[in-house]
């Protein structure tokens, strides 16, 4: 067997070993997720409600499209006391209006922002 073939065989064996360990790790992760307790959003908000984001409740949400429109109209400033934008939210967030259909997947790192359907005023903020 040539030196190249020996190296190729050794690399193939190593790749199989790495693949098996990745599959084991994925199986363990899946098992831990399957055994994780489901939490009601109201219970979650009592534990970890994103307290630093509760200040958004009562403020009007300005969507990216609305921001673009304001800039096009020459209004490049927004009143931070009464409004907020996606730039005020963490990277992992979701905003929706009351009554909208949303996925029920639980992501404890995601901040959910519930907006009033008519006024886009923030009604509730919770993690989940």
The main β sheet shows up as:
3 strands, mixed
Share of β-strand residues: 15-25%
What is the number of helices? 3
In helices, the fraction of residues equals 25-40%
Oligomer: single chain
Q: How far apart are the termini?
A: 57 Å
**Strand arrangement across the biggest beta sheet:** 3-4-5
Please give the radius of gyration in angstroms: 24 Å
Mean pLDDT over the residues: 74
Instruction: Please trace the helix and strand order, writing H or E for each element.
Output: HHEHEEEE
Q: List unreliable stretches of 5+ residues.
A: 29-48
Secondary structural class: alpha/beta
Number of strands: 5
- Large-scale geometry: elongated
What does this structure look like?
The chain is α/β, with parallel strands linked by helices and 128 residues long. The chain has helices spanning 3-34, 41-48, 64-72; strands at residues 60-61, 83-84, 93-97, 111-115, 122-127. The chain has a three-stranded mixed β-sheet with strand order 3-4-5. A two-stranded parallel sheet has the order 1-2. Helix 3 (64-72) links the parallel strand 1 (60-61) and strand 2 (83-84). 11% of the residues are buried.
Q: What descriptive keywords fit this protein?
A:
128 residues, alpha/beta, three-stranded mixed β-sheet, two-stranded parallel sheet, 3 helices, 38% helix, 16% strand, elongated
Summary of the model, kept short:
The protein is α/β, with parallel strands linked by helices and 128 residues long. It has 3 helices and 5 strands.
